Amino acid sequence: MMNKIDAEITAMTLRYERAANRDAMRSTRLTPNNNLSGYWIDNQRFFYSSEHFDADLDRVISTPMIADMSSGSAGPIMPLEQLAIELTKHSEAPIEVAAFADAEYDMPNDSQLVVTLNGTAFRLDIATKSASSAEPLSTDPELFSPDGQFACFVQGNDLWLRDRVTGETRELTNDGAPYLAYGQQSECCLGMVSYRKHPVPVAIWSPDSQWLLTHRIDDREVPDLPLVQHASPDSLRPVLHTYKYATMGDPSPIATFVAIHIPTGRIVEATDFPAIVFAFSPIAMRLAWFGDDGATCYFIRSNIYQTETDLVELNLDTGKSRIVVSEKAEQGYLDLHALVAAQINVRPLASSNELIWYSQRDGWGHLYLYDAATGALKNQITQGDWIVRDIIHVDEGKRRILFLAGCMDMETDPGNRRLCSVNFDGSDLRVVIADSCDVMISPRSLSGHDQEKPFHPSYARTGASADGRYVVRKLSRIDQGSRIDILDLEGNARLALASVDTELFGEWTPPRPFKALAADNETMLYGTMFLPTDFEEGQHYPIIDYIYPGPQIAYAPRHFETIFASQARMLAELGFVVLMLDSRSVPLRSRAFHHAGYGHLLEPQLADHVAVIEQLCKRNAFMDRSRVGMIGQSGGGYATARALFDYPDMFKVGVSVCGNHDSRAYAQLWLSKYGGPGSESSWEAQSNQSAAKKLQGDLLLVSGDMDENVHVGHTLSLANALVQANRDFDLLIVPNAGHGVLLTDAYTQRRVWDYFVSRLAGLRHPKNFPLEYRPADTARIWKLYAQECRG
Q: Which residues form the Peptidase S9 prolyl oligopeptidase catalytic domain (predicted)?
């Protein structure tokens, strides 16, 4: 007969198994097409990959598809069985359908499909459905010109060019130097050790393949940061890695933009307008692009506090640069999009020499029309107590803009978007698509996309067709699934591409969106509550607050089965009620809402979380106010530790992962923009080390020893402060793990589960529960995670 302890462990083992089925790796396999992507071949045909989950392989397999709005049909270019037969004709070994789990598809032109498998590119004629050739691909990191003729690559500190037809190479630059290199990330990119292993050129090809826009970054004055790999698989001794890392008060990396004319080798430099590099290359952040006229390129630059922002134009014919528009904030910082990694809402208009510019100057994120020749403001285009989220299409002939708007649905969730249109002069504002869920349409990427893929048409549109008649939209709600279709904005015809249903998981308890008041007792906040599959209203459940305090991204999920929410889904299956909340100081609302915590990185966020939990516990008898924990990663790790220090009556258990516990020692971009020109005493008071003596609950500190973003020194410095304060705590340093340790390291994930089950739920857990993440799944997760970060 099973004793009480064995029964408890057996029951918890079943919960662990359910949690394992809800992790990001497994979830993405069970929800194929949830992040369907593709591009327009022409104004009526859309190319995409349709995914399906093969249970026998336990992998996602994709099929190349074309949706044709002229015929109202969508179907495969050819069945996978036939495709395998064709590819085998040009392969040394037979190709099975299972191999397409690792395939990539592209259409470099409207008549050809390229299938990339295991380092070989197979070309197929779409009309005859026959394979014509196969060529091995180089594994060297390169950027490919849109016409397919050239590839640029990094050699030493310079950029080189390779002719893909003849194989000939030549230098594009020749005076690069250490820490003064062309076409590479800044040493301060928060991932330099990894980047050195695979240095993809940081540059942009022009649409006509005549120019390459890049930069030369000067890192020479930036201090070094050592990072020790204690258990290198390649050495019995610890390995020392050193890279440049700028913190507040250090010299900043400086970029000089450079355009190279490929036919002649002529170089044009914007030497009069150097740009501060805020960790990531401005090209990687899509802050530089070529103009539609083919004779100009543009880039954004800001001062150290990002209170002043310029749009700079570089004339490729004359070599001269000028500031087109400049904006200065009297208080707070400037954004050109609500989310930091999204495509900025700036559009130079070549045909009329005008400019569409995004600003929060009236308290909300709106569009303004400028004369691009003089820099004079012509008129405000949009206005009201709502925000422009993304510019989807600009019709210069009709002088009309198609855009996504937020905060139009304050009753349900201000984060839900609607598709709207408006004239350049601000007249005739219309809501084109509104739904009870979020409306997502990809904006045009000004600088192209995926130029590291040799057969990808990098300037193809992904959201709206080039003429603006059709849009590929995703309608998604966290508790109802997703559907992706193409909509005819003129005739309202709809062509379904994919759907993702909640039935895929069998029995489950849907997440519950909720609303509650902020700590000011006035501002309404929105979030999501995750519950276990076997949830019962009459039971009492411990609570875990899964936090990220912003202020650069919103965190509460609105779409079905996001990567962001995977941690919440798993923890809920262990028997917890898990909350994700967008507090004040995160984006997607008014400027006042977003800047509520300017100068103080964790308040009012933590106060809001406490206020919301109090309200939810009063509403829901199943929530146990006496057992509340918190988990967070990066800025969320910083917030988690601080929550236990400052709010011990609320938070009893915390897991702080890779926390930037003292922002004075973190990347310069963070404190300079979101903290502003504060005082040393203020930053000292906000460091977790200064408050460590207040710890009363159970705290687990986690970090990877190879975290290039938030150095492991942050975690160890807080550990030292806790030791000095004679406070008990737990510590996990994961060898060879980086900043994504919580998302991609199975051992860390299992230890997090064990900690909350034993310390917060007060239950026994299975010992050494087996949890495994496969490399193929990890690669897929990072790709989807990057998409979510961009909005």
A: 564-759
